[in-house]
Hints:
Blueprint: H1 2-5, H2 9-24, H3 32-37, H4 45-56, H5 69-83, H6 87-102
Helix pairs in contact: 5-6
Amino acid sequence: MLRDNVLDEAQRSRLIGLYEYLQRNQACLVNDHEREQANKTYTSQIAESHVDALINARPKRTNKMQWPREGAHHILQIRVLMASEEWESKCQAAVLLALGAAA
């Protein structure tokens, strides 16, 4: 109804794009109010905070350290495994074996 009442063609085009986007992604849309009322998580704030902490973790002496994109990706994968407590069960032995082979 809103789309049909807008006279400006550019605004109508944006409304059509929004409508089509919502239609395509309807299965992924979350009703935050319902989740909040059911005491379920309804925000990504906690996840974003963890991601920020993982990205910003630096050894104390190297605060200005910069990683190339590929190296940063690998470091973040290791930090995520360690934070999720999957490090010991999945990777620790492989990394220690590789370090031993490199030495």
